[in-house]
Write a structure and sequence with these properties.
- By secondary structure, the protein is of the alpha+beta class.
- It has eight helices and ten strands.
- A hairpin with a 2-residue loop joins strand 1 and strand 2.
- The two termini are 28 Å apart.
- The relative contact order is 0.11.
Length: 252
């Protein structure tokens, strides 16, 4: 289903719901990976209304929900569809990358089945990681840590977008993230993101070609850039080099 700057295309989603017996819908409404798009409140209402009273579960992957730059979250789908929504979250984005821990919020009947499936899969999550997460949440100011991450990522995202506006060819389009970790770039038709990737790597700049994010092999002129793990100086140097690579690219 097409994804626009304000979220999922409701008309196409309605068509798919009529055409197929869809049992569950998976979405990342906050700072979606890879696009960085955040669904507007209206789009959330539109999707919820389309799913209301249907036998379709909505899986809301909220791994990036705490990383919004405004400091205020939009409503969860659970607010509109409490009996159909499953929310998943992750500590790896907000506590430490090595803490491979997450959580689930689900209706009681669904949670009962999830617990059984979890026990059958691996009995339980790593106890040491659970204990570390518990001790941090119990004894540290986790909200303060989140505010620090939000402020830092916001500054890095704004710097990256500002440099891209200044240095990229006018034909290159890119998102302005409201949170998360990524900027999504659309290159002019005829420029291969895989070739950009290979040339940029020779300049010590790593980007991710967009094709693996498409189920139909599309996105050959798209790529994802991460801003969360670079210093301001590295962001400047990286965007300068990437812009030069793109300017020098031949078109097929």
């Amino acid at each position: 289903v097409l994804l626009h700057e304000d979220g999922l295309d409701p008309a196409q989603f309605a068509h798919e719901l009529k055409a197929y017996p869809i049992r569950f819908f998976y979405g990342v409404p906050n700072s979606q990976n890879p696009s960085g798009v955040t669904y507007s409140e209206q789009r959330r209402k539109d999707i919820a209304e389309l799913l209301r009273d249907k036998e379709t579960l909505l899986i809301e992957d909220d791994a990036y929900g705490e990383l919004n730059f405004a400091g205020k979250s939009l409503p969860s789908f659970r607010q509109y569809l409490p009996e159909q929504t499953i929310i998943t979250g992750s500590f790896s984005k907000i506590l430490a990358p090595g803490i491979r821990m997450g959580w689930v919020v689900a209706p009681p009947a669904v949670m009962e089945q999830l617990v059984i499936a979890k026990q059958a899969s691996d009995l339980h999550s790593n106890y040491l990681s659970q204990r570390i997460a518990y001790e941090y949440l119990a004894h540290e100011d986790f909200d303060a840590k989140i505010r620090i991450i939000q402020a830092r990522y916001k500054a890095q995202a704004e710097q990256m977008v500002s440099l891209m506006k200044e240095l990229m060819p006018a034909s290159v389009r890119f998102t302005t993230p409201q949170g998360g970790m990524f900027v999504w770039v659309t290159l002019p038709e005829g420029i291969s993101s895989m070739e950009v990737f290979e040339r940029a790597l020779k300049e010590d700049v790593a980007v991710l070609p967009g094709t693996p994010f498409y189920t139909d092999g599309g996105g050959k002129n798209t790529l994802r850039i991460n801003f969360s793990n670079s210093t301001p100086e590295k962001i400047r140097v990286g965007i300068e080099r990437l812009a030069r690579v793109i300017r020098d690219m031949p078109r097929s």
